[in-house]
Amino acid sequence: MRLQMKKVLVSFIITLLLFACAGKKEINKDAATYFKEGLTYFQNKKYEKAAAAFEEALKKADTPELAAKAQLFLADSYYLDEKYDDAIAAYKSYLELYENQPDAKRALLRLGLSYYAMLQPIDRDQSYTREAYNTFLKLNAKYPEFSKKYNIPAKLRKLKNMLAEKDFYVAKFYVRIGEDKAAIVRLEKILKEYKDTKVYPEAALLYAKVLINIKKPDKAVSVLSQLLKERKDPRLLPEINKILKDLKKHLG
């Protein structure tokens, strides 16, 4: 009797284990199923789960169309979840493969906005500023009307000013420590590439001062004359007059 009970008990335990194993067995989902799950998560703003599902859909995609959709929604999931570094990588992958697709302009926009979201103060590295600027330049050139809709021209002006301000910040540092040649490189870059920025007049004035320091008075006068010609701003006159007085002292 006891032996029979043991057999029944062992059989019962084996059955339970088999059910448990069966319950843990993963269903082999195809790309379309993962994509559909990703869309559901995405619509419910569960972006982390959406990204995981779109990643699986991308791995198993058996058509270019599904792969393109999965890649774009993967990037969008990262972007809306504010995981901008991941979004940047995903959007760049999409644009490398599908640059001429209708959704490419949205991918390019959000690539630029991902960089834009991570802008740093002027005293920090400006790599994201430069990437945002270059991305928006491309967007503005390729899709001008779409670009205007999202106020990209204004963002480009802001980014250009930031890049100029960074060079001016560095130039002033070099002047402070007596590295005039290094300062000149930055100041000449501003005068050449950033004439339409807010910092341009200040950069031109500082450039003239540095030129006087390195005994190039003729070039300093030329820079000041060019500045007045381009800006025609009477507010610049007091500082220009001050620089010219200093020049006279240097000339004796």
* Count of strand segments: 0
Q: Structural class of the helices, strands and pairings? A: mainly alpha
Question: What proportion of the residues form beta strands (DSSP E)?
Answer: under 5%
Count every helix, treating DSSP H or I runs of 4 or more residues as helices.
13
CATH-assigned homologous superfamily of the largest domain: Tetratricopeptide repeat domain
Mean pLDDT: 90
How many domains comprise the coordinates?
A: 2
Largest sheet: none
Return Rg in Å: 31 Å
Would you write up a description of this structure?
This protein has 252 residues and is mostly helical. The chain has 2 domains: 32-150, Serine Threonine Protein Phosphatase 5, Tetratricopeptide repeat; 166-251, Serine Threonine Protein Phosphatase 5, Tetratricopeptide repeat. The protein has 13 helices and no strands. Helix 5 packs antiparallel against helix 6 (104-116) and helix 11 packs antiparallel against helix 12.
